[in-house]
Write the structure tokens for this entry.
Amino acid sequence: MEQLEIQKLNGIQVVDSRIIAKGLNINHKSLMETIREYQKDLEDLGVLPFETAKPAKGTKGGRPETFCYLDELQAHLLVTLSRNSPEVVAFKKSLVVAFIQARNEVTLLQEVINESENYLEKKRLYYQKQGYSDAWIEKRLKSIEVRDELEGIWREHGINSTQQYAVLTSIISKGTFGITPKQHSELKGLKKQSLRDNMTRLELAFMILAEEATAEFTEARDAQTYQDMKECATDGGNIAGNARLELETQTGRKVISTLNFLPENRSSYQIPKNTK
């Protein structure tokens, strides 16, 4: 039996009545009549939201279909009203499992969120101890969050190689700043130090824009191949690169900076002055 789809509606896990009808192998209209008959009992267990679906795409005429969403208790009560058969029992079992899995996924997601928050809080404390300004720290933490989201999207689309990540990052950076990460590091006098930990707030801001744009292109285009990802990275970098050039033209200041946050420079670390 195919995996049941458990949805989230107003923070509550629910299942579509049409899925239940299919699982019980009965006409959905008949199921809705049963739901109407036992509506008060079902509503004693929670809100019972009714919805109207448009006629199937490509069909002529036809009336909109009314369906509803049932939470876990409502769904279990409804299926108990059906006579058992091997198929019905199998569906009831799969319904129980689907709700359990949905709860487990929520728990796991919350754990991931908590771990992420703890990780970012640890990074915040680390940067504070290193002497970074609060404004810079907020920008850096945002850049970490955006980067993690982008890598998550890449993984969902089949990109798992560290080498591929490096190539895509280089493409984004080249489009944004006109130079590769290696050249950017050399410009700042870095060796093995983190480039982003040595960027100015403005440099970080443009990296955030570039990676946000890359993520948007990747999802909007439903990129599937590595070549598709490269094209999205190119376009994402170009979005930020064009914005950078426009800012430099309007302000007369270069965004790309030789400033770094190596120990010997921390006392004088600041936003670069006008460098026409």
